[in-house]
Request: fold
Amino acid sequence: GENVEQHPSTLSVQEGDSAVIKCTYSDSASNYFPWYKQELGKGPQLIIDIRSNVGEKKDQRIAVTLNKTAKHFSLHITETQPEDSAVYFCAADSGGYQKVTFGTGTKLQVIP
Amino acid sequence: DAGVIQSPRHEVTEMGQEVTLRCKPISGHNSLFWYRQTMMRGLELLIYFNNNVPIDDSGMPEDRFSAKMPNASFSTLKIQPSEPRDSAVYFCASTLYERNGYTFGSGTRLTVV
Reply:
């Protein structure tokens, strides 16, 4: 089955700096790669996703890149703000029926 | 749309008791997932349904766990008997085929004492 590794597990950045979270996956058949943000006491929320026919996707301060050859994808957050502080999860589809495998999460702390 | 609705938000129960967690997915979504989240194991997929049919329950830890989806608007996850190691946050998520991503509920924090 699919295996998704995520790094780093924790990340602290100064407000205004950029943050990068990296993930690798094992199944070359995976085609869909969503990212979720989980705030304290809440369920994960989809913030951006990318499909295998695209190498990069942006949405305001958030961007994702995908390298299918190397089987890795990354989340980039620019001009970080305190409200970006949360746990971020990457995921890759696996097994059909919209099933995805999640990474282990990155706790991002943005220091004002 | 009210989103995915889970109840209760918090549950404290004694070891050996039966626990039932409930989920109402977003109307029109045809896939439903039950996850368990702990610090040690992260997000674990327990079971998922497609069009109310269980597709894969290989993540259900033991026979003490069971899940049902009697119709498109309701699902339950039952633990009987409960044990302290079942303490975790349980999430329900739903999605529509076409890979639009999951919508998660707010979760049920279960504490078994």
Summary: The interface with chain A takes residues 4, 31, 33, 42-43, 45, 48, 50, 55-56, 91, 93, 95, 97, 99, 101-107 of chain B (CB under 8 Å). DSSP finds no helices and eleven strands in chain B. The mean pLDDT of chain B is 94.
